[in-house]
Prior knowledge:
This protein is α+β, with helices and mostly antiparallel strands and 243 residues long. It folds into 2 domains: 13-75, Arc Repressor Mutant, subunit A (Orthogonal Bundle); 80-240, Chorismate lyase-like (Chorismate lyase, 3-Layer(aba) Sandwich), CATH 3.40.1410. It has helices at residues 13-28, 38-45, 49-61, 111-116, 148-151, 158-172, 188-194, 237-240; strands spanning 65-68, 72-75, 80-84, 99-108, 124-134, 137-147, 176-185, 201-211, 214-224, 228-232. The strands form 3 sheets. It has a 6-stranded antiparallel beta sheet with strand order 4-5-6-9-8-7. A hairpin with a 2-residue loop joins β5 (124-134) and β6 (137-147). The protein is elongated and about 65 Å long.
Amino acid sequence: MGTTRVESAPEPKYWHLKTVLTEALDSEFAVGEVLPNERELAARYGVARATLRQALEQLELEGRLQRRRGVGTTVAPPRVGVEVTWDPDGRPGARGDAWQVDDCRLEAAPAAVSRLLDGQGSGPVHALRRVRTEHGQPVATEVLYVPGAVTGEVPDAGAARGHAVLRALHGRAPQAQERSVELGSARADDARRLDRLPGAPVLVVITRYLADGAPVAVAVATYRADTCRLTFGEPAPAELLAS
């Protein structure tokens, strides 16, 4: 990594330094390689350590670096391409690593979800919690909200209830979906499941499923922003709810 001075850059120093470091990561470092310590990097680039930390934090946010206790700052592997289509059966081995049913219980839907359900979420709804893994690593959590009017009677037990809810939803055969994506911060429960710290950056994907023009479910999925690269596709209806 050569010496590059950044004093004359017209943009914020940390941002220009981030660009310089990005080029170095692409050309001089291998995935998993440990970067020099902060003192050495700050001296090489002629910046204060506070400026360097800002640049490193931005690169970590963008998924280019990983900070590991006892190891240091390492070059992160490329982001995992995660296809955002609905595969709710969660069977191990169905599509490699995928969604796994964690729990399902009756509870009040958040106000925003209730609105997306057009009022069907005013009473208790089935809240199905799942975790998605890719290559053995957790990359996303999801809560799928399904009104009781859609499912009818289902078992009481957590995972069994979850699979029964998915089967009942399959019977409604949603034909359409509406989706939005926004940047958010990991809540404590999601952070624990994703092996992140609370407040870590995440991508929140909200999907509303429609059958005959009416909402039958709302999914709120939380993806790790540092490791995921989301790709979108529109599967055929049969693929949406195969169980």
